Amino acid sequence: MFTKMEKKELKVSAIKNGTVIDHIPAKDLFKVVKILGLDRIDTPVTIGNNLDSEKFGKKAIIKVSDKFFEDKEINKIALIAPTANLNIIRDYEVKEKRPVELPQSVKGICKCINPKCITNSEPMATKFDVIPGKTVSLKCFYCGKVTDHDHIEII
Amino acid sequence: MNNKSLISITDFSTKEILRVLEIAEGFEKNPEPHLLDGKVVATLFFEPSTRTRLSFESAVNRMGGRIIGFSDPNISSVSKGETLKDTIRIVSNYCDLIVMRHPLEGSSRYASEVATVPVVNAGDGANQHPTQTLLDMYSIKKTQGRLDNINIFMVGDLKYGRTVHSLLQAMSPFNPTFHFVSHPKLRLPDEYKAFLDSKGVKYYEHEQFSDLIPEADIIYMTRVQRERFSDLVEYEKTKDVYVLRNSMLDNAKPTMKILHPLPRINEINQDVDPNPKAYYFEQARNGVFARQAVISYVLGLKH
């Protein structure tokens, strides 16, 4: 006898220790994977995508075993998926649950939309101030141009 | 990181702007031909801009400084593919100050991060050109005797004109009234209107020169570039609407002055030039004093 909730969770197997990132809009899953560098780590990662969600229609969930991210690192995903939830799991129990927080500035993870921006021709890290709002946009520290949410391109 | 650079006019507080204008006044009254004795200033022009370069070099020369640099990136290491960072690092070793002009936006800010000497931005693409703003303000102060409560008409390309954007930001603390005159396609962008709203600055928009010219203290003309219009027929039809002619100035205030960042094409008719209200050539002269002030201020020779 499973409740509705438990059934849904079981579509992606439980982890013993690690981090679960839930409520990622399905279309943004691979951006989140890239931002967190999950394509380059060697601990087990389980990903579920296009799961039914009352909130967004389709959502994604990521479970990373034996990995606890620093706030600075994990909060970067708020740029793409501000609705995401973070669960810290220890011995199969949720020890901490919180939404991701939008950072005030980000360095080196996105591309500036302005083709005439110096960051697009020098081998250098980009820097942006985060402009909060319904959808997040980024103001380039160098050229001042604003990259809106739909054009945020992860490097 | 270096001590003090000037990349955007917003790098200076209102207090600092006023101080720099005061220093510029000092240079106009009392040239200091030995202030930069023993100092070397590099003028790095990654794109040609003869007028701006000569103005900076004149400023350095008048204070007794020496100049190194290039005015054409094709004959420098840039053409060999060196990064901006490397060029700036190397040149930092050779000089006390870098003045740079570059076609890419944000280049000067980046240069100021990697340089070990102060950097003065002489234009980074369509982005910033702060010494132009300072010389505009100097010209307003000098001709009107004040910066407060000035009625400014801004005419032409208000959408892309960086001098317009910087000047309205820098003037906003002084309770100005703005009249923006432009083709609907070249209107002031919303972000600047929002800025003015947030500061409680009064402004009005017009699609042609209004009968309010007699109220103007300053008319700030800018060039409308043909390439801003996708429809050239429309450009041809409208370009003459934004031309200032001598006959339009009959009822203007005697103290009113016409400014233009130059170069002009036809937006100020030649028949305006002999009118004492035409101030654009003297304005260019003020650029030397303003740049002397900026250079001595960022070098810490004037406080």
The gross shape of chain A turns out to be elongated
CATH class label of the largest domain in chain B: Alpha Beta
What's the pLDDT, averaged over the residues of chain B?
A: 94
Share of helix of chain B, binned: 25-40%
Provide the spatial order of strands within the biggest beta sheet of chain A.
2-3-1-4-5
| Largest interface, C-beta within 8 A | A-B, 15 and 15 residues
Low-pLDDT residue intervals, each spanning 5 or more residues of chain B: none
Return the CATH class of the largest domain in chain A. Answer: Alpha Beta
Helix content of chain A: 10-25%
Largest sheet of chain B: 5 strands, parallel
How many helices of chain B? The count is: 9
Please write out the topology.
The complex is a heterodimer of chains A (155) and B (303).
Chain A: H1 4-9, E1 18-25, H2 29-35, E2 45-53, E3 57-65, H3 71-75, E4 85-90, E5 93-99, E6 105-107, E7 110-111, E8 127-131, E9 137-140, E10 146-147, E11 153-154
Chain B: H1 14-29, E1 40-45, H2 50-62, E2 66-70, H3 84-92, E3 97-102, H4 107-114, E4 119-124, H5 130-144, E5 151-155, H6 162-171, E6 177-181, H7 190-199, E7 202-206, E8 218-221, H8 232-238, E9 257-259, H9 280-298
Helix pairs in contact in B: 1-5, 1-9, 2-9, 3-4, 5-6, 5-9
Written account of the structure:
The complex is a heterodimer of chains A (about 160) and B (about 300). Chain A is elongated and about 50 Å long. Chain A folds into two domains: about 5-100, Alpha-Beta Plaits, CATH 3.30.70; about 105-155, Aspartate carbamoyltransferase regulatory subunit, C-terminal domain (SH3 type barrels, Roll), CATH 2.30.30.20. In chain A, strand 2 and strand 3 (about 55-65) form a beta hairpin. In chain A, about 10% of the residues lie in helices and about 35% in strands. The longest helix of chain A is centred in the N-terminal third of the chain and has 7 residues, at about 30-35. Chain A has helices spanning about 5-10, 30-35, 70-75, and strands at about 20-25, 45-55, 55-65, 85-90, 95-100, 105, 110, 125-130, 135-140, 145, 155. With about 300 residues, chain B is α/β, with parallel strands linked by helices. Chain B has two domains: about 30-130, Rossmann fold, CATH 3.40.50; about 130-285, Aspartate/ornithine carbamoyltransferase (Rossmann fold, 3-Layer(aba) Sandwich), CATH 3.40.50.1370. In chain B, helix 1 crosses helix 5 (about 130-145), helix 5 (about 130-145) crosses helix 6 (about 160-170) and helix 5 crosses helix 9. The model of chain B has no long low-confidence stretch (mean pLDDT about 95).
